[in-house]
Amino acid sequence: MDVARIHKDPKNPNSEKFGSTIASEIESSRGREITITTMAATTPFNGIGKSVSRTVLITGVSRGLGRALAQELAKRGHTVIGCSRTQDKLTSLQSELPNPDHHLFLNVDIRSNSSVEELARLVVEKKGVPDIIVNNAGTINKNNKIWDVSPEEFDTVIDTNVKGIANMLRHFIPLMIPIKQGIIVNMSSGWGRSGAALVI
Ligand SMILES: NC(=O)c1ccc[n+]([C@@H]2O[C@H](COP(=O)([O-])OP(=O)(O)OC[C@H]3O[C@@H](n4cnc5c(N)ncnc54)[C@H](OP(=O)(O)O)[C@@H]3O)[C@@H](O)[C@H]2O)c1
């Protein structure tokens, strides 16, 4: 197995750079299994190939890595479908992209199963089944002792990072099975895999 690893460069922790790095890995890895460890995601997947334009659904595109990845993939000629909860940032992102009307941005809270179900319905109606889904939307509580993390804050982390991804898988995997095609990338964090003081 050929494993590519993308590591965060502590000297240049710049989202735009990561958008480009992740986009390159996704494009150039066709035919081999790669593991993205930047965000500690260790999900193996096959790439989408450089020469073919693909449809890529990314959750959490209003800012950060998701936005950078959306910009980079659109620049490289892929069709981007994006979601997050901040409408003005979705609108500004769409207007920044080459060929804006070609892409689809929807205001969706992935914590809501019914909203993700509606997202899947709209995506299929307007763009078909995505070739690749990047489950990027995520959140983290403030660094704290476990007993000082409020139940509300803890719920938000679990509802977004665990249940949100489950909602996406629940409504999109059944669309991919009949066509025997589809790649899912789940972003995570090193802090999701190992414990440390003040991090849960
Ligand atoms: N940056 C890093 O150094 C780093 C390190 C390790 C792992 N990661 C992982 O990489 C991913 C992206 O990180 P980031 O730093 O780019 O995060 P970020 O800047 O905080 O952006 C998170 C994105 O997720 C969206 N989002 C949050 N909750 C959502 C919800 N319920 N429904 C829909 N969208 C939601 C946010 O948009 P709205 O608020 O508009 O909805 C935003 O667009 C996360 O999964 C994170 O755990 C990042």
Automatic annotation (TrEMBL):
Tell me what organism the protein belongs to: Citrus clementina (Clementine)
* A GO MF label: oxidoreductase activity, acting on the CH-OH group of donors, NAD or NADP as acceptor
Q: Which InterPro entries did the record assign?
A: NAD(P)-bd_dom_sf, NADPH_pterin_aldehyde_rdct, SDR_fam
GO biological process terms held by the UniProt record:
folic acid-containing compound metabolic process
Name the Gene3D superfamilies for this protein: NAD(P)-binding Rossmann-like Domain
The terms describing its cellular component in GO are: cytosol
* Protein name, as recorded: 3-oxoacyl-[acyl-carrier-protein] reductase
Q: Which Pfam families match?
A: adh_short
